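Internal tracking record. Fields below are filled automatically when a chain is submitted to the structure queue. Please do not edit lines marked as system-generated. If the sequence contains nonstandard residues, flag them in the REMARKS field before resubmitting.
Queue: standard
Priority: normal
Entity type: single polypeptide chain
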Amino acid sequence: MQSTAVRQCNQTFHTPRGQITLQGLISEQDVFHEVITGGGGIYTGAQGCAAFERLGPGDDAPFRVVIHLVKDSDLKRALPIEWACPLEF
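SYSTEM-GENERATED OUTPUT FOLLOWS
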């Protein structure tokens, strides 16, 4: 059986209008998801999820991050926000 290392990751994205905080379990995969655990500024009480996708080969390749913020209890009304950024684990 092959073992895979898994890490718990906590991140905060700083924007001009506030912060978005994420948390999740990640492995060495090129695609993974995290949940939004809160935020500050206009994102106070934020809910939703984020999708991470590695944009190239190698550990130093940047990730495309798409954050889906839930405006209300209707998940169909999510507002996507997108970044491409390097992540250090």
